[in-house]
């Protein structure tokens, strides 16, 4: 769990065997170019739409879906990408959107505390891991508009090109697939 560029560098230098990332319409060409130059392969796992991730006590928590207009008065929370930051490496799905308030954090605990303390939100895949984050958070479908479209995001993992996964690597990928099958919100 680190910055996008560090995931790419760690897998490229074999510090890590596998890195989990996502591709979208916005970042796909840039990310694929980075993968190619780093001798990496992207292996798709699932495709999904964006969801708004927020605290279950948030004033909008009971809405069936959320729009950018509804979210405008609340702070958007984003993972800090460091000095190599680029729109194409951003964790959030709409990096070019002009948010009225945006807060960058560099760890999950801070992000979750800001969701509760400031009624912040972030855009995500809709996959919530209660074992990591607890049961106090929700994923509500994001309803896009002309300026903020809800395009598909493809979640997958990267490996060194032509590498053979270790026994632990294969177990990890199998566990990821099993978890995603059991916990993915269906996309209609």
Describe this structure in words.
- The protein is α+β, with helices and mostly antiparallel strands.
- Helix content is 29%, strand content 24%.
- It is built from six helices and eight strands.
- A three-stranded antiparallel beta sheet has the order 1-8-2, with helices on both faces. A three-stranded antiparallel beta sheet has the order 6-3-7.
- It is globular and about 50 Å long.
Strand content: 15-25%
Specify Rg, calculated over alpha carbons. Answer: 17 Å
| Assembly of the depicted chains | single chain
Strand order of the largest sheet: 1-8-2
Shape: globular
User: Mind describing the biggest β-sheet?
Assistant: 3 strands, antiparallel
- Class based on secondary structure composition and strand pairing: alpha+beta
- Separate helix tally: 6
Helix content: 25-40%
Termini separation? 29 Å
Q: Give the helices and strands as they follow along the chain.
A: HEHEEHEEHEHEEH
Ranges with pLDDT <50 over ≥5 residues?
none
Mean pLDDT across residues: 84
Task: Please give the structural blueprint.
Elements: H1 4-12, E1 19-24, H2 28-37, E2 40-48, E3 51-55, H3 68-71, E4 76-79, E5 102-105, H4 108-118, E6 121-124, H5 130-133, E7 137-141, E8 153-160, H6 167-183
Parallel strand pairs: 4-5
Antiparallel strand pairs: 1-8, 2-8, 3-6, 3-7
């Amino acid at each position: 769990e680190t910055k996008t560029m560090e995931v790419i560098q760690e897998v490229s230098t074999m510090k890590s065997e596998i890195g989990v990332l996502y591709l979208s319409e916005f970042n796909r060409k840039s990310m694929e170019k980075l993968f190619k130059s780093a001798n990496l392969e992207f292996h798709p796992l699932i495709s999904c739409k964006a969801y708004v991730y927020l605290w279950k006590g948030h004033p909008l928590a009971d809405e069936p879906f959320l729009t950018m207009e509804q979210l405008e008065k609340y702070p958007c929370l984003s993972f800090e990408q460091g000095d190599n930051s680029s729109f194409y490496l951003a964790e959030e799905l709409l990096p070019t959107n002009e948010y009225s308030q945006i807060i960058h954090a560099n760890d999950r605990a801070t992000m979750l505390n800001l969701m509760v303390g400031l009624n912040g939100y972030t855009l995500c895949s809709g996959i919530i891991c209660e074992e990591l984050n607890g049961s106090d958070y929700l994923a509500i479908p994001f309803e896009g508009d002309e300026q903020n479209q809800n395009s598909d995001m493809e979640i997958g993992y990267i490996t060194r090109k032509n590498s053979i996964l270790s026994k632990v690597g294969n177990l990890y990928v199998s566990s990821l697939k099993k978890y995603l099958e059991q916990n993915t919100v269906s996309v209609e």
